[in-house]
Amino acid sequence: MTMNRVRLISFLLLMTLGVQSILAQVSSRSRRPVATKEKSNSFTDRLWYGGGFGISFSGGLAGLNGNSFSVGLSPMMAYKINNIFSIGPRVEFQYTNGRFRPQFNGPIVKFNGLDYGAGIFARAKIMRILFAHTELSYINRVYPVGFDASGTKLISERFGDNQFLVGLGYTSGGLFSSEIYLLYDLMADSQSTELPLVYRLGFTYKF
């Protein structure tokens, strides 16, 4: 057998062994179970978002003769501690525009006011459609309290209140959901004529 033939046979044998090795590795990999993709558990994946939007009309404000219009916005965001509990901040703004008359056939006086507030809340999912809500917040409101001596300008005052709210709510469930909840203010002034109840409508994403 010549040297060239020995080299050719050796080369073909090595090629055959290499191909068999490659095929064996491919076959082995094809038989392995496909690894499932792990569910992401990052900080942003645990966040959910929500908020409310409200519009209201009133025949008067603070006992003054006239009409007012209010529009409010209250965004919120929370971090899911686990599948039940979540905690996060909430802010709210409400703009009020009013037209009042100090006396019959008197001049019209306009009012523009901005209420604002912020707080932190916690939630617990009791059931798929039911949740408990507690919130500690501060709200600053502006009210017209009367007219000046000329009757052509409104006098307004600002009042700040702390709130400790507790209550229950209903959510429609799903990725995008609507919600409604009723809260009771444990820090409400017992001498005030205002009811210590807060009624909210809103929407959430990923709650």
Our count of helices gives 1
H/E element order: HEEEEEEEE
% residues in beta strands:
over 45%
Indicate the radius of gyration in whole angstroms: 34 Å
How would you sum up this structure, described in words?
Helices cover about 15% and strands about 60% of the residues. It has one helix spanning about 5-30, and strands at about 45-60, 65-80, 85-100, 110-125, 130-145, 155-170, 175-185, 195-205. The protein contains 1 helix and 8 strands. A hairpin with a 6-residue loop joins strand 5 (about 130-145) and strand 6 (about 155-170). It has an 8-stranded antiparallel β-barrel. The chain is mainly beta and about 210 residues long. The protein starts with a helix and ends with a strand.
In a few lines, what is going on in this structure?
Helices cover 14% and strands 58% of the residues. The chain is mainly β and 207 residues long.
